[in-house]
Design brief:
The strands form three sheets. The chain has a seven-stranded mixed β-sheet, covered by helices on one side. A seven-stranded mixed β-sheet has the order 10-9-8-11-12-16-13, sandwiched between helices. Strands 14-15 form a two-stranded antiparallel ribbon. Helix 3 crosses helix 4 and helix 10 packs across helix 14. It contains 16 helices and 16 strands. The chain is of the alpha/beta class. It is 37% helix and 19% strand.
Length: 446
């Protein structure tokens, strides 16, 4: 894992508190932050955590910026020390009549084009504000932070981590990670007991690769532990897994396979070897609905590249479109061979049984749990996550009646974030509600 930024890496671009996941595809790669377009080419070979100054490029009609690395954090202008010279005792006499700023919208837009830095723009706004000097120091700081957020001229490029990826996906859309918030994710990793020893079984029906990335991160690089990642579609979502840039040795410890195909492979081998017929249809009576080939192709392109592409657009050129039939057959044979190799590898691990089972599903989890529970060793943790309490309650009742899992607990997470500042500590005004429910327990020996 390189300590420096290089082409092909996934980057976390941070502008104040806003973060965005971006792939550094090539020298011409850019990242869009609001209305600003930022070139990434000058970030190459700089260490991660480097802060860059946004330098505007003179292109008419575009807010295009290039990067200039800062050698020390002290180069960042401290607007609080520069602009706060006097403050008022309270804000009771300030009237919000929207007339305190003497500059018009057109004049402010002109300032953005003429000034070399955003600090100069904010300075002009402060100078032309009638009420800034009479505000309290706290109000002045809040005003500057709002303007910095709007006109900020610095970005920091960070290496992707599980926490940052969880925050980004949750902020964009909780459905992208099936409603798994970062505090719930930490509990999933803790309850499942994932470490650098043992084999672990995960079923998830679409979290952009966040769950397998988090579990593989806990497994570590130098270990013999293995992770079998089951999914309902033809192609596993792996964007977060690829963004973590694990070493090849560590990445090879995660085997991603379709849940139905690997169970069929496992029981067909068992039937051939032992001569006993296994009712596979009863085990997978609630098989997940297969998605169409078109939607799977789009999902694969979106999961890896972050963009929707048609099949012919994903190819390199016209030569790829006008392939000979034999070439297509070879490709299909290679894909089939890879699919069979992964199924065989997963089935081998399933024969040795697993040390924990994690299910994060948007469908009813009981049929999945019933199919996967026989592959778990005794006295091992079982964990099911769902955004629906009723589904987990049904699982709880069924497991109680079967007596196959003990110490069952159904819990709900409620996290409240606080703003911690001198003389103004209070809960955040807006926060997310429940982050789903967890059903945990331990298997009883068969």
């Amino acid at each position: 894992m390189s300590e420096k930024i290089k082409i092909g890496d996934y980057l976390i671009v941070q502008r104040q508190k806003y973060t965005k996941l971006q792939k550094f595809v090539n020298q011409n790669a850019t990242v869009q932050l609001g209305k600003d377009q930022i070139e990434l080419r000058l970030a190459e070979n700089h260490p991660y955590q480097t802060t860059f100054l946004l330098v505007p490029k003179q292109e008419r009609g575009k807010r295009l910026y290039t990067l200039d690395a800062l050698s020390t954090p002290s180069e960042i202008r401290n607007l609080k020390d520069l602009l706060i010279k006097e403050s008022g005792h309270d804000n009771r006499n300030i009237i919000d009549d929207r007339q305190s700023q003497t500059l018009s919208t057109e004049e402010i837009l002109k300032l953005r084009e003429e000034c070399e830095s955003s600090s100069e723009v904010i300075g002009k706004l402060v100078e032309n504000s009638k009420s800034f000097a009479t505000k309290t120091e706290y109000s002045q700081e809040k005003y500057l932070k709002r303007k910095e957020k709007k006109y900020c001229e610095y970005i920091t490029i960070r290496r992707p981590s599980v926490r940052l990826l969880a925050d980004i996906y949750w902020r964009l859309d909780p459905e992208k990670v099936l409603g798994v918030r970062f505090d719930t994710l930490s509990q999933i990793i803790s309850y499942s007991g994932v470490c650098n020893v043992g084999n672990y079984l995960l079923y998830e029906s679409g979290t952009n690769g966040l769950l397998p990335a988090a579990m593989l991160n806990s497994i570590g690089p130098q270990t013999r532990a293995k992770l079998v990642h089951l999914h309902p579609g033809n192609v596993a979502q792996k964007k977060a897994l690829l963004a973590m840039d694990f070493p090849n040795e560590q990445l090879a410890r995660c085997v991603s396979v379709n849940i139905y195909s690997v169970l069929r492979h496992f029981y067909q081998d068992k039937e051939m070897n032992n001569g006993e017929k296994v009712p596979l249809e009863e085990i997978m009576e609630a098989k997940p609905e297969p998605e169409s080939d078109k939607s799977e192709a789009v999902a694969n392109d979106e999961g890896v590249n972050g963009t929707h592409k048609r099949k012919h657009e994903a190819d390199d050129g016209p030569e790829a479109i006008e392939e000979e039939p034999n070439t297509k057959l070879v490709k299909l044979d290679n894909q089939k061979l890879l699919w069979e190799i992964e199924n065989k590898a997963a089935a081998e691990i399933m024969r040795d049984k697993f040390d924990s089972l994690v299910i994060v599903a948007k469908e009813h989890p009981y049929s999945i749990l019933k199919a996967l529970l026989p592959f778990l060793k005794s006295s091992r943790p079982v964990l099911i996550f769902s955004t629906s309490r009723e589904l987990l309650t049904e699982c709880y009742v069924e497991l109680k009646s079967e007596a196959s899992v003990t110490y069952l607990r159904l819990t709900s997470n409620w996290m409240r974030q606080y703003q911690i500042l001198p003389n103004r500590t209070h809960p955040d005004v807006t926060m997310s509600g429940s982050s789903g429910y967890l059903l945990t327990g331990y298997t009883i020996g068969n």
